[in-house]
From TrEMBL:
The lineage of its organism: Bacteria, Bacillati, Actinomycetota, Actinomycetes, Kitasatosporales. The keyword Membrane applies. The keyword Cell membrane applies. Keywords: Antibiotic resistance, Cell membrane, Membrane, Transmembrane, Transmembrane helix, Transport. It is a multi-pass membrane protein. This is MFS transporter. One of its GO terms (biological process) is response to antibiotic. Residues 13-458 form the Major facilitator superfamily (MFS) profile domain. Its main location: membrane. GO terms for molecular function: transmembrane transporter activity. Coiled coil: none annotated. It comes from the Bacteria. One of its GO terms (cellular component) is plasma membrane. The chain crosses the membrane at residues 44-67, 79-96, 108-129, 141-160, 166-188, 200-219, 225-243, 264-284, 290-314, 326-344, 350-374, 386-411, 431-454.
Length: 478
């Protein structure tokens, strides 16, 4: 099938990439409202259900760096279309799953396909739109797609689960994926790539992926041996990166304190916030007895507020007040959100008690762009692409780790309260409230990490400015 290279095909190519990214983002959130139905039908354990989310996020987060490198070596178009194909096939597998193990395996496969498509999608757009103004518009569409995916995931997950059953939330990807493959094969630019001889750190990718899998498995199942094995494998990954000829993650990147600090803050922030999304959906159905559709609509204002602020007000506020102030203000709103959730009754009034809290989610729309700006400012020009991919990886791993840790804490607290004689609803509420409180602590830790990062930058900048000023004041000898 010939590739269309005319200028007029670029909007269609942009729409094709955006549609694929929309599927990827949507599938990260669409399951959150459907989880209670999935848990009942497939008989997941109290802690095991989180793997429906974690299987997807962990595969996505751990394969992004490798997928991006493969795009450089084999061509971005080829990896993008292969990723969409894997994702679409895995969606059919998930929609037809009849057991917990089959669904989790399908979710891992979905995450692998999503990693392939999303890792190279941004690079395709940068190639298609070289002019700064056109590129800015294309990247705006790209960013809006992420916000739209989060919104649609919440709403579609509830509506489809309640009307057609949870299987439909995966089968809806089939016509979209087929359309992306057919159109993408015609309109996306062909690239030869550097070739496999340019180098690929397959061993490093295997060690990193296995280490993350073992670590999260140990956290979810409270298995110290798996947790320890994960740390050992990640240590071997670090050694490999220090000695590999073409490492996936050059050590110099993590030695940059600005980059490392911002990534750690991102890990803590998204771990708390994605867990808020998952656990609140669980709370409204398990404790407040809301239906799946009502739960999805109840969460909609939070997603809309995040999207509106991130695309609108955040850039203006950062330009006026600076990245750190906007970041800390956004994190303050998010801490207030989780603290107030710990006091929510078992049957809340939506307009008076829940809707105001959902609107506080706008803090994420302020905090995330500011944190990205802080971290990217510490990257050298030659490492900007790698650091961008690193942020995405930390974000995905933070989402998976946050759900694993906080859902396990909630389940353990619920079990303890049940043994103490509490009713089922009260025990569940107690578990979720503990998880929200710990999430608020993670956000405070993110704020402290970012504050420390900013102080180190300021302390490092001042001496440099003083030395530069001193050199300028040295008189010239005649």
């Amino acid at each position: 099938m010939p590739t269309v290279s005319a200028r007029s095909s670029r909007p269609l190519a942009l729409a094709t990439v955006a549609a694929a990214i929309l599927m990827d983002v949507l599938d990260g959130s669409i399951t959150t409202v459907a989880l209670p139905s999935i848990q009942r039908d497939l008989h997941f354990s109290a802690a095991g259900w989180s793997w429906v989310v974690n299987g997807y996020l962990l595969a996505l987060g751990s394969l992004l760096l490798l997928a991006g490198r493969l795009g450089d070596l084999l061509g971005r178009r080829r990896i993008f279309l292969a990723g969409v194909g894997v994702f679409t096939a895995a969606s059919a597998w998930a929609g037809l799953a009849g057991s917990a193990g089959m669904l989790v395996a399908a979710r891992f496969a979905q995450g692998a396909g999503a990693a392939m498509a999303s890792a190279v999608g941004l690079g395709i757009l940068v190639t298609l739109f070289p002019e700064p103004r056109e590129r800015a518009r294309a990247l705006g569409v790209f960013a809006f797609t992420g916000s739209a995916g989060a919104v649609l995931g919440q709403v579609l997950g509830g509506v489809l689960t309640q009307t057609l059953g949870w299987h439909s939330i995966f089968l809806i990807n089939l016509p979209i994926g087929a359309a992306v493959l057919l159109v993408g094969a015609r309109v996306l630019p062909k690239e030869r790539g550097l070739g496999l001889r340019a180098g690929m750190d397959a061993l490093g990718a295997a060690l990193g992926t296995a280490g993350l899998l073992a670590l999260i498995y140990g956290i979810v199942g409270a298995r110290p041996l798996a947790w320890g094995a994960g740390l050992v494998l990640l240590g071997l990954f670090a050694v490999r990166q220090a000695t590999a000829r073409n490492p996936l993650l050059p050590p110099r990147v993590l030695r940059n304190r600005s980059v490392l600090g911002a990534n750690l803050a991102m890990l803590l922030m998204v771990g708390a916030l994605f867990s808020f999304q998952v656990l609140t959906a669980q709370y409204l159905q398990d404790v407040a007895d809301w239906g799946a559709a009502a739960t999805g609509l109840a969460m909609l204002p939070a997603a809309l507020a995040i999207g509106a602020v991130s695309l609108g007000a955040s850039a203006r506020l950062i330009g006026r007040f600076g990245e750190l102030r906007v970041l800390l203000f956004g994190l303050t709103l998010l801490v207030a959100l989780l603290v107030l959730l710990t006091r929510i009754p078992e049957h809340p009034d939506y307009l008076l008690q829940l809707l105001p809290l959902m609107l506080l989610g706008a803090g994420f729309g302020l905090a995330q762009p500011a944190l990205l700006g802080l971290g990217m400012s510490g990257a050298g020009e030659g490492d900007a692409g790698l650091v961008s991919g690193l942020f995405t990886t930390f974000q995905q791993v933070g989402m998976a780790s946050g759900v694993a840790v906080l859902s396990t804490l909630a389940a353990s607290r619920t079990e303890a309260l049940r043994h103490a004689g509490a009713a089922q609803a009260a025990a569940l509420a107690g578990g979720y409230r503990l998880a929200w409180a710990v999430g608020a602590g993670l956000l405070v830790a993110a704020a402290l990490t970012a504050g420390t990062l900013a102080r180190r930058r300021a302390a490092g900048a001042a001496p440099a400015e003083e030395r530069r000023g001193a050199r300028e004041q040295v008189p010239t000898r005649g």
